[in-house]
Write a structure and sequence with these properties.
Blueprint (H helix, E strand, L loop, with lengths): L1 H21 L3 E4 L4 E3 L11 E4 L2 H6 L7
Antiparallel strand pairs: 1-2, 1-3
């Protein structure tokens, strides 16, 4: 019974992490442009590194769109 509880909890935590990865607040494209949620190219950006804040994206070497 304890094994099932631990397995269920682990799967839940993994699925929560995947939600953040697939729908991040900020996406840094392969060209280094930081797109925040709701911006013009956010939904079109498919290959990206995810960030929870625009400042973190910019601090990682990204830039704002022109």
């Amino acid at each position: 019974m304890k094994f099932i509880y631990i397995l269920s909890l682990s799967l839940f935590l993994i699925s929560c992490d995947n939600i953040q990865i697939s729908n991040p607040n900020v996406k840094k494209s392969t060209t280094g442009i930081c797109h925040k949620k709701g911006s013009q190219y956010y939904k079109q950006t498919k290959n990206f590194e995810s960030f929870d804040a625009l400042k973190k994206c910019l601090d990682s070497g990204g830039r704002l769109p022109r």
